[in-house]
Design a protein that fits this description.
The chain is an alpha/beta fold and 375 residues long. The protein contains eleven helices and 16 strands. Strands 1, 10, 11, 12, 13, 14, 15 and 16 form an eight-stranded mixed beta sheet that branches. Strands 2-3-4-5-6-7-8-9 form an eight-stranded parallel beta barrel, surrounded by five helices.
């Protein structure tokens, strides 16, 4: 299928770009001895799991459904963390998990023995209270009062015997320098506990496949931890797996004017790219520039009734009109997993780009998908 035949709106997963990212991640595993897991919260397109399984060690899950998806569609290592597990789900989760990470001593005491009986390795999430981010606090697990992870003041220097490993996740779209700072804080506060476990999961937020990522510094951190504490190290990036490996293909529906030109699209920030409003951020758009850099500037907005359903301002070489096609880049991550049907918006189709002009629709959605979520 050619590009012009795809439905609009449509997420396009760029398979060659995805493979390029996976090659880098496999190189990191081979060079460092660490294991890398796909963080499904960023990218859960399970049609690609057989491909991903050829490169990575498994997947990280945030609860029951992701754990089951990992087991059914990838069937490699499945690591599960939740801020709090439900009693009516824990037995099923343990059927799918290889590692389970608890967020508190109370959760460990309630469910730890069940994990041991199920032959699932047990971990605790720690909070090094070391913020390395300059972005919104909503994305900082180490922000003051965070509910994520056990602080050094709470965790005993002597771990319960059933604890096999420790887990921390503090980064968001960051380079290896932030990991180095974080690991120093972890050692300062939890060195005694590190010597009592067999593995350490360093969570996600590592932008390993970004062009400027410092792999040498990453290797230095991983080598130091492995040699000092004799630990198996896990990384669980989500963005790095599918970074710059997808697009959102959409169409201009109308042009209106109010203190400038506004193009209304069949794609919505609120429904199809919610991080644009949550971060907030201005997503990259192919063949466009900052406002005023090119002759024609438009505010791009979605078709919902939400007044703030605005994607951003962009400039173009030529005027937009109804029917113009646009391509937002880096849309494989935190999009398909977050879509919603507010206002009855249709969900975008999902397609796979297998070659330069070789596209295949993996899934389409309809009114049935909207209705079945309601009653």
């Amino acid at each position: 299928m050619r590009l012009c035949s795809l439905p609009s709106p449509c997420y396009i997963i760029d398979q060659p770009a995805l493979i390029a990212n996976l090659e880098i991640l496999r190189q990191v595993m081979q060079a460092s001895g660490c294991k890398i897991l796909l963080a499904q919260k960023a990218f859960s397109a399970y049609a690609l799991y057989p491909l991903i399984a050829q490169y990575l060690s498994g997947a990280a899950a945030s609860g029951l459904y992701e754990a089951r998806l990992s087991r059914e569609e990838m069937d490699k290592e499945t690591h599960v963390f939740s801020p709090a597990f439900r009693e009516d789900e824990i037995h099923e989760i343990l059927q799918y998990a290889d590692h389970i990470v608890f967020n508190s001593i109370d959760q460990l005491q309630r469910f730890g023995d069940l994990a041991v009986e199920a032959n699932v390795e047990v971990g605790l999430r720690i909070n090094p209270e070391c913020s390395t981010q300059s972005g919104p606090a909503i994305y900082d697990p180490c922000s003051p009062g965070s509910r994520l992870g056990i602080t050094a003041a709470v965790l005993s220097s002597r771990l319960p015997n059933i604890v096999d490993g420790l887990h921390f996740h503090t980064l968001c779209e960051q380079n290896a320098d932030a990991l180095s700072i974080t690991m120093a804080a972890v050692e300062q506060k939890f060195a005694a506990q590190l010597r009592q476990v067999s593995w350490l999961n360093m969570g996600g937020g590592h932008h390993i496949t970004r062009s400027d990522y410092d792999l040498d510094q990453l290797y230095h951190v991983l080598r130091h931890v492995r040699e000092t504490y004799d630990l198996q190290i896990y990384l669980e990036p989500g963005e790095a797996v599918a970074l710059n490996a997808g697009y959102l293909y959409c169409t201009v529906l109308d042009i209106v004017e109010n203190q400038g030109l506004i193009a209304i699209l069949d794609a919505s920030a609120a429904c199809h790219m919610p991080d644009v409003l949550e971060m907030p951020y201005r997503p990259p758009l192919l063949h466009a520039a900052l406002p005023g850099e090119k002759p024609y500037t438009y505010r791009l907005a979605g078709p919902t009734c939400l007044a703030g359903d605005v994607i951003g301002e962009y400039s173009f070489d030529h005027p937009l009109q109804a029917g113009s096609r646009l391509f937002f880049a880096d849309m494989a991550i935190y999009t398909m997993v977050k879509t919603n049907t507010f206002n009855g918006m249709p969900l975008p189709a999902i397609a796979l780009k297998e070659g330069d002009e070789d596209y295949r629709v993996l899934k389409s959605f309809s009114y049935h998908d909207f209705k079945e979520r309601l009653c």
